[in-house]
Automatic annotation (TrEMBL):
GO CC, one annotated term: axonemal dynein complex
Residue stretches making up the Dynein heavy chain tail domain: 5-166
Gene Ontology MF term list: dynein intermediate chain binding; dynein light intermediate chain binding
InterPro entries on file: DHC (IPR026983), Dynein_heavy_tail (IPR013594)
Protein name per its UniProtKB record: DYH5 protein
Coiled-coil annotated spans: none
GO terms, biological process: microtubule-based movement
Length: 168
């Protein structure tokens, strides 16, 4: 029973730490007003990396052993653990999926950033790709994500035009 209690304490610390990571990941991002669309891809790549590392930790032999001991002891901490494990898996899948879809836009970010208003020829393809992401992505198709993406695309267009006008 004493071993079980010690292991439950360890799992409760993990639950608290993982819960904190999840809370922080849901907080509103603070970004510069003029940040471009490639920042969106970088953000999701960073999240994917963080959550994948967390998943690797959760699936490690050490953690599995502790969880199986607590399962045998019918510990009450496992309910919370399973919920968090599920939340981490969802967050990792969301980040991976969003990275995959945002990579389809990556080829437009270069031409969009070139210092020439000729970028306009890329806009129809860019918009149809954004539309495709909105229609088929299971995670990225929220108004919050789309607003963030459109804001960054618009910022990039404005910055490109400013650069062109100042250098011309």
């Amino acid at each position: 029973a004493e071993v079980t209690e010690k292991l439950e304490e360890v799992v409760m610390i993990w639950i608290k730490q993982i819960g904190q990571v999840l809370v922080e990941s849901k907080q509103i991002r603070r970004e510069a007003d003029d940040v471009g669309p490639s920042a969106e891809l970088e953000y999701w790549k960073s999240r994917m990396s963080s959550f994948n590392s967390l998943l690797e930790e959760i699936k490690s032999t050490k953690v599995k052993k502790i969880i199986s001991i607590l399962q045998a002891a019918r510990s009450k901490t496992l309910k919370q653990w399973k919920e968090l494990d599920g939340s981490i898996t969802i967050a990792a899948n969301e980040a991976k999926d969003n990275v995959r879809y945002l990579y389809t836009l990556d080829k437009f970010f270069g031409p969009l950033a070139n210092a020439s208003p000729v970028m306009m020829e890329h806009i129809p393809s860019l918009m149809s790709t954004v539309c495709m992401i909105y229609c088929i992505s299971p995670y990225y198709n929220t108004s919050e994500h789309m607003t963030s993406l459109f804001l960054k695309i618009t910022n990039q267009m404005i910055n490109t035009c400013k650069t062109y006008l100042c250098e011309g």
